[in-house]
Amino acid sequence: RIPWGLQRVMQGLRLRRSATVAATSREYERTASMENLDAHAATNRSDHTTTRSGVYPGPTDAAEPYNDDKVNEIDGKDYMEVLKAIKAMTTHRLRYMKKYATLLTFMVFVLLYCTVVYLQTSPNLSYMVGSSIEGLIKPEKSSTQDRNYFYSWLNDQVLEPVWTEIVCGDGRCQTPHEIPAFGRFGCKADCGAASVLITLVLQITSKFAHPVVSPFELMLQATWNLCLIVPEREKQGLTDECWYEEDQVFLDVNANRLERLQVIEGRWYVKVMGDFLGLVEGRIYRDEGNDVLQMLPTVPEWSSCASNGAFKAEAGAGNSAVGVGAARQGLVAEQSASDEFSNSTFKTINITVSSNYRYGGAVAVGDKVFFAPFSEDNVGVLNAATDTFSTIATTGAAADGIWKYGGAAAVGDMVYFSPSSQSNVGVLNTSSSEFSTIPLTRAASNENAATGIWKYGGAAAVGGYVIFAPLNQDTVGILNISTGTFSTIDTIDVTGDGKYAGAAVVGDTVYFSPSNQNNVGVFNSTSSEFSTIATTGDAAFGGSTKYSGAVAVGNKVFFAPHNQNNVGVLDTASGSFSTIAISGGGVQKYSG
pTM above the 0.85 mark? Predict the structure, then answer.
């Protein structure tokens, strides 16, 4: 189908062609007539004859016929002009089509750009905000030249209504400034209480020692805290929320601190500041319930620098040997034996276990020594007569786990293990080598009488009871042997972690060795009363794990020095405390 414009061109050319042919025919006839006239005139001149009328007669011969070749030549020229016109029109049309396409592309781009700007600016919201602010702060007077009126308007209409402090209790939970309540954080009135909490156990160990720098200088520079990363606070340039309002300081050059915290799920991290030599290390555990602790990995690994390790050695780690006479394996630094204590031969007996922190206490029954399972899944047994070591597997809830039991006491052929992280008292029948447990539940309510980790330290038997030294518990643990029931007695005003680590009996009274306390714990098994006797000398001041184990000789109780440079001595008859200096220094010397 030929376009309308091209039809008009061709029609015009056809009309032009017809006109050209007609004009050509007329021109041809006129030319022929003139030629005939010229020929006739020439003839007349030659004959010397003229006509009277003076008019030339018409041609004697007929006119020349129509020439098709000449017309075809003219048609060819016309078609060339048609083709040229078609080419020019097509070029013109294509040029304009390209311009129209460019214009359409530009219009689409403008439409998309306006759409994106519309979506980004949110005009509805902007209008609402703008109109609200305008209605709020627009002055009532048309002029603000009056200074007093201007300041009054600025305070009443702008500052107080707009820049307001976030108030807990206004019924609006304004995140990220307000969050569900947990610990000392959040606003319970507005956001409610946090529905899901997890229990974290932090073990923070430090040993500030350097050949040049003072240990106290290093200790005073270091602080720590547990903080939570909140992305919304980061976006607004706010600092992270930390569990403690102020960073915690270290109070002892050598410390092994436990913190039990209930927190919300999130990206928690331990912030250690000022520990330039890398002398602080630790571990983080998650309490999964039933006193099952799962160690959580940290990135990077939270450990001390290799050249300044927190501990030089761990008892039994690396040489798989147990020292004869050793009572408890803990975190023990290298310690050379003093001559005044070396009046007997010392030797070692190889053992068949190789984990760290294997056993937590020891007690003798006959010619055998039984070791309380701390991180091992068995009771260690040393036959003193044959110098051989063997094990008896723990069962039930004590079949696996760490920090199970921290002390041991014997009654007849039965050995009772003091619960540390276990929710039961471990029991070993030394005659049948059978292991069993007694749960820490109250008979009346069937609830756990003690929870958490490192509940109790040492154990001592008196009458028909086994008494457990309160380590992190604020109660004295009591096991009735005949009924197999567990009960507790409050330590009254004595609270905190790491209170007492060992126990020894004089008469019907049990004495607890002071670990983090500045006193000796005293429990009267007859009256079930708890009291304290103050320590003196350098043991009267703050310090962690001063003494560990305890043993009674006559009416005196001797406390093994852990971080102290002396042996603690309590005269139970006079109730006086004294110390006996020991040679050498260092920390974590003895543990039983």
Answer: no
